[in-house]
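To: structure subgroup
Subject: Chain for Friday's discussion

All,

I'm putting the inputs and outputs inline so they're searchable in the archive.
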Amino acid sequence: MSQELILLLGGARSGKSRFAEKLTMRFGERVLYVATAQARDEEMAARIAAHRRARPATWRTVEAPTAVGKAVRTALAEGPADVVLLDCITLLVSNVILGGRWLSEEDFDSVDERVVGPRVDIELDGLLRAVQESEVPWIVVSNEVGWGLVPSYPVGRVYRDLLGRFNQCLAAVADRVYLMVAGLPVDIKALAADPPAS
């Protein structure tokens, strides 16, 4: 199986994960599923449990709220996979910004992009290295969060900006990029236009 990177973008409940799972099945049964979600409350714990129950028994799950590249390299060294499915970058960037803790109200105004930005860059570099070093396809899911209102608090703006930059870097190197709209995939890479000549 050749190495390939497929990026799936879209808004909340746009069908990203469902399409990612269908696409994953085309590559084989040995799926390495990388989950970045953390059970920070009962509702999230219930969602995670439901996702676990829905995954096929042949899928191997690695929970990696951060340091995804390292986690995948370790998992692939422990056993082969036909494809890696990473769901999702949205929570990964949030986890890096939060640093493993809940933010207090005071923190909402004090998150500094100059501090958390380099940590997000390190996470991105580690992920891209793992993709390049592996010999299997990767399917990566992320949200497109830049189409709504400008967040009213600093941490929201920092998060939006850093996630947007992360998505752009992944899209630039991805072999295929799909935008999910109401459950339908649109091949963005195929539609992308070159910048006009000056």
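Points worth raising on Friday:
The two ends are 41 Å apart (CA to CA).
The domain at 5-191 is CATH 3.40.50.300 (Rossmann fold).

D.
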